[in-house]
Every structure is written in C-alpha cells, then in structure tokens.
What we know:
BirA Bifunctional Protein, domain 2; eight-stranded mixed β-sheet; about 30% helix; five-stranded mixed β-barrel
Amino acid sequence: MLKRICIEDLKNYYGQEVELQAFVDNIRNIKWVQFVILRDETGKVQMTIEKSLEENKDLVEIVNNLTTESTLKIKGKVVENPNVKLNGMEIIPSSIVVTSSNVNEELPFNYKDLNNVNLDTRLDYRFIDLRNSKNAFIFKVQSSLIKYMREYLYNNDFIEIHTPKLIGAASESGSEVFEVKYFDTKAYLAQSPQFYKQMAMAAGLNRIFEVAPCFRAENSNTNRHATEFTSFDIEFSYINSFQDVMDLEAELITYGLKHLKEELGDKIKELYDIDITVPTLPFPCMSLKDIYKELEERYGYVVDDSEKTDLTTEAERLVGKLSKDKYGHEFMFVIDYPADKRAFYHMRNDEGVLQGYDLIWRGVEITSGAQREHRYDKICQVAKEKGLGKDVEFYLEFFKYGCPPHGGFAIGVDRLTMLLLNIPSVKESQFLFRGPNRLNP
Length: 441
C-alpha cells in the first residue's frame, strides 16, 4: 500500500523531496513571495514560493488562481527554517497539482470560529463543520478509546460478532421500534443485539462483543438521546453473579481510559482543557435505596416514593457528585432496582431482587447491565407474566437445549464520547446525528 506522508511526519524528512496532499488553509500573496498554508488531519505547514525565480513561473500562476479549501498534490523539499513561526519548517515546491477546487470560494460558515454558528447549520454542513480541527479530533479520540476497549476484550479471549439489524419481530419493546417494509412482509430495525448476544451464549461462543448501530423510535429531544446510535455490547458465560459483569466492565473502562490518556491525553488537554482521570478499581457501588437516602441527607434532594423506583435525571446528576464526594471517584454502580422496572430477561434471585445494575459516569447513566435469566422454565414464566407472546417465541427457543449462566452490558459509544470530552450534546459526538427531527445529511 502507498504510504502517505502526513504533515506531522514532515520533521522526519528535512532536506528531502516529498509528495504531500492537503487542503489549502490560507493564502498570502504578497509582492515578492507567496505563502500557502497547507492543512491535513494531522496539522499545518507553510509552502513558500519565491516569485522572482524563473523556474517558479508556473507555480506562481497556479497560486494566483487558487482558492482556499481547494486540495493540492505537492512535490517539494522539506526545509527546516526557525524563522517560520509555524513549526519552524516550510515546503519549497517543485510541482503543484490542484486535485480539486473550492468553486464557491465562500463557505456556508467560518468553521474556524463556530461561536455564533447555529448547531443545526453546522449539522446541515457537517462536512464543513468537521474541518474544524477540534471537532475532527472528537473522532480520533472516539476511535482510539474503542480500539483500546476492543484490545482489552481480545486480550481476554472475547471474539467479535456481527448480528442482524433487520429483525422479524419487535425486540424488547414493540412501542420503540422502527418498522420497515421487507419485500411482502414487515421487518424492524433492531433496538439492540441483546437476543442475538444471548443466542451466542446458547451456541457456546461464551465471550462475545459487538460494536454496531442500534435504533430507538423514541421521540426524545434531549442532549443525550438519538434515534440511531453506536452501541458497544458485551456478553459472556460461566459467571457466578452480576458482580462478575460489573468487575469486567470496570476493568474494560479503566484499561481504555488508561491507554487513551497515554496516547492522546496531552492533545485532549490542549484542545479541550480536560485531564483524563484513570479510575481506580474497584468502582464504588450503592443500592438505589441508599442512594436516595444519601441524596436527601447530603444535598436535600427529596422526591416522592413513587419516583424512587429508578433514578431521575436530577438524581443521576447528583450521583455523579455523590461518588466524588463520598468515594473520590467518577464512577458509581447502582444496584437493587425493582425487578418489574427492568427487562424480563434480567435475572431475579430467590427473593425477587434484580441481579443487575446501572453505571453512572459524571452524573449520566452510561450502562445498564445484568446477569441474564438462562433457565428455560424461569424465563418462560417471566415472559408470560409480562404478557409477551409470539414476539419472543424465537428467543425462548435459545434456552430449551441448555444455556450456561451468563450476563452482559452495553455502552453507548456516542454518549461515552460526549461525557469524556465534556461536549454539550450527543449531536456533536456522533459523526452524523439522527434524531426525531433529523434524517439528513
């Protein structure tokens, strides 16, 4: 494969002729010299053309007709020059090819200064918005974090699978699925790979994960919801309790943040003024009942008993504060939710207590996890109690022929990125946002 030289690599090529491809970031065309600032995803560099040199005649004419945001292929020498403020180097070109032109010249908005640009306008022109280096860096961070989380799982004998997103029956909750025409019948977009993850456990795959899109037909217009999002799903067998699931998730997140900080921590600090905190193990854990008690005693947060079956949005926020105040930690596991408020496939113990949890990070829920019910008679009983019929028949089949004890969880990649970089909305931590009022670009 042809290895492309990026701007950040140029320091390794002083005195050498290189080929460089980049955007035109800025042009200064003065009496005796032309300065062209070139930009790629790794940085910027100055290209310098002396007008008085006869061999530069054609290059000068190209730059005279050049527009910013066009793209170029340049051959030239990399010269170390301490007088150049931009990285102390410059490119002296021998040839310039314009590979594309900015024909409109004026952009829809100034992506270098987004302070007064409406977010919807930015999303309409996301391909312009992401020319802002800070915005583009979001996806470098996201990619690296997912890389390290994958690495942790591969190192612990997990395999990656890919489950279908077109399904024949409404999964988990029929009221929140997108229905699509599928030849002469109906299909649905998968809310999650949950059923298929458990099918993998019944198949004996034992340790699996998937990073893939999920779809929720929720008319939620908040800063952290989307109708399509990327989910990092994990399921594994031969567990003793849901504590094993919590332990693995804590180790996964700690590994990912530790290695992300080593790779990109300085750049994240430079662009976002954020220090990545690598959490300590184990993560703190409290019951839902004890959390509401502490929130009332510490912060005067009082809600009606009817609301204490789950964490309210404000309670979630305060759990972030409680975890730091009580444990000096950014994460908090919350356990002992009422069983009737959770999915039918979450295991209950002999006393009917849910064997599951939520994980709160920086005052926002990032995970619901649990030990799953793997016993055929029990799962059938709960499904019947929930009034679930034909929609889960195929799922119940998985447990007829033996299935090991197992559990798992899912992390929303876009929400995780939003919280990591303190971005105001998930709309900006997704490459292309999908919500109730946005289906384009």
